[in-house]
Amino acid sequence: MAFLEIKNVNKYFPMENGSQLNVLNNINFKIEKHEFVSLIGPSGCGKSTLLNILAGLIHADSGELLLNDKAITKPGNDRVMVFQESALFPWLSVIENVMFGLKIQQIDKKTAYTKALKQLKAVHLAEFKDSYPHQLSGGMKQRVAIARALVINPAVLLMDEPFGALDDQTRLLLHKELINLWLKTKKTIVFVTHNIREAIKLSDRIIVFANNPGRIIEKINIDLPQPRNKDNKKLVELENRILNLLQSEMNFEGGYRYEEIGA
Amino acid sequence: MKRLVHRIIFVLFILLIWQLFFKLNIWPNYLFPSPMMVFQTLLEGFKDGTFVNAIIISFKRLLIGFFISIIFGVLFGLIIASNEMIDETVGPFILALQSIPSIVWLPLALLWFSLGEAAIIFVVVLGGTWNMVINTRTGIKNVQPVFMQAAKTMGVNKIQLFWKVIIPAAVPHLITGMRLSWAFSWRALMAGELIGSGSGLGQLLMWGRDMGNMSLVISIIILIGSIGYLTDNYIFKKIENKVLTRWGLNT
User: Are B203 and B196 in contact (CB under 8 A)?
Assistant: First the structure.
């Protein structure tokens, strides 16, 4: 029995011309506890849609999603999501943001504060606890967002291109930080990205999607210990393999350009 | 600093032209007073307490009316924003009501409440409410979806989503709504005070007209404009700016 199971999931979006776009076509895979799994693919392949379905924010048209054997039907704090854009609440200070998920569980303020501060320390932002989101850089915001999610101690952490809007240098730093957090907490993470190198560096497993219709074309295990060196020969080979996989899909009408799938 | 100098030069220029027209003697002095005569009226009015008294009386009405219109406005706005059908049904009527100048309500106010405080406050409330309805509705409708999605994945229920996410996210619109409603209420108040009894600013203005005292009329026009500008610029704009900055909307 897998920890998280996705069985025969289909999703259609209505198009302007009245037809239906098959964004997710018969998706099947399983995720084990403590696994770091990346969903990768070009824009429009349904990877973010699948993540939203896992979060319970939207519903699949058919199929089944099970977490710990229980069907996923609506959002819940066992599956907290980190978004690409800063979803921090601007009216709350950094620490109040991190306390948000605890306070709505009616956890008393003192306990929530202590927990939030500890989590902020883990992302090295304790000294910014009283700042407001607009005073933080993009990278810092995402670190707070990760802290805000982890403090709830969800069964699964869902990440929707969380570093997609950051510059390369910041992104590399955050990769390091996320891996350290993951090694410590051993959270189950489902990570959506279109950046191949990012997926290879972070994940235990990569699920490669293609579009029209959105479907899985490959599942790749990466049995390399963390932290990983980006110049590792195996990683470079893997990168080329995935690139070739995606490029072979490129001739579809309405396909994507190289830059979109590039590292 | 440079801006201030420019503004002072501008005021001096206006005063100069005013003085020039006064010297031309096109109208008799009691109909077209000189800047100096108006300045003296202002000075005396403040000295003997008439103006301060009038301002206090007017502000009391304004605050009561403004307060009521904010409560009504937010309530109606929430109701409209909460239901698509209500929104589509009453939306155009709210816009129509907002486009009605407050002075139009005067006859109704007089007939329903007769000459008194209630009539004036009624007009002030009608002046401020519709704008607040519109701004509240816009604020609620324009909450960034990602805020609500984030909150949902953190496990909020519907009530928490409303009070802890939607309402705070709408605060910038609510503040802008209050600023505009204050300005609309202020105008409505002046319209309302043109009738009725008492000694508010508007009534003092009418009294000046009846007495043929144009110095007084112009003094009060200056007061009305100054108060409107000062409250907007030094109270509401300041609050609004602070909120917009924190909410990350000031670029």
Answer: yes
